[in-house]
Amino acid sequence: MKKILIVITVIAAVAIGAVIWLVGLPEKPYQLISQDYNLSASFPDTPTVTRSVNDEGRPKTEWTVKHDHGTWVEYYHVSGTCYEEVLDPAKEFGGADDDPALALNGVKVLKSEKTTVRALETGRELPAYSRLSKDIPTGNVLSHFVVLDGRCMVDAGARIDRNEGPATLFMENIKMLK
Asked: Model-level pTM?
């Protein structure tokens, strides 16, 4: 009888371990507020922060949450950087879907649009661009969003193929503050 109880206990422990490994531990929501880039984003977990420089040598900050669930990866990302000159939406967004690098890398644009985002505190309208794309080799579906705020650019993305609800909520909760 003791042997059966030990076997059941071991099987239960392995099953619990497998569930935690596949699904992950409960996440702790993280509210990012960046005065430097005038943005707010609600992450499902505490992001990893990476600091680097952009092509002009100016600071760039990236916040990323990535959870590997074994058979799929949950991914949320926001970056912010500023440039010397005011960014021109026509130059930044024009021809974005015609970039040959997309096709060369197996990316198919499913939907894209130029739009505007209203800042929460001031009501300013900021030019924005959104894209839904599919990585053909892997089948991964990605949501991508860029907002121009004068000299600064906020770039956000999420993988939505296996976690559409949380990824959509993440993308909808990226806000410009002033």
From this structure: 0.81
List all residues 6 or more positions away from 13 whose beta carbon is below 8 Å from its beta carbon: none
Residue 112 lies in a domain: yes
Distance between CA 26 and CA 128 in Å, rounded?
A: 33
Structurally, the chain folds into a number of domains equal to 1
131 close to 93: Cβ distance less than 8 angstroms: no
- Helical ranges in the chain per DSSP H: 2-23, 89-93, 100-104, 164-172
111 within a domain of the structure (yes/no)? yes
- List pLDDT tens digits, range 149-171: 999 999 999 998 888 899 999 99
108-145 residue pLDDT tens: 999 999 999 999 999 999 999 999 999 999 889 999 99
* CATH code for the domain of 73: 3.40.1000.10
Only one residue has tokens 């959104």, namely 130
Residue 84, classed as helix, strand or coil, is: coil
Pairing of strands 152-159, 140-149: antiparallel
CB atoms within 10 A of CB 28: 9
Domain span holding position 150 = 28-176
**Does any domain span residue 101?**
yes
CA distance 18 to 165: 24
Q: Decide if 46 is inside a domain.
A: yes
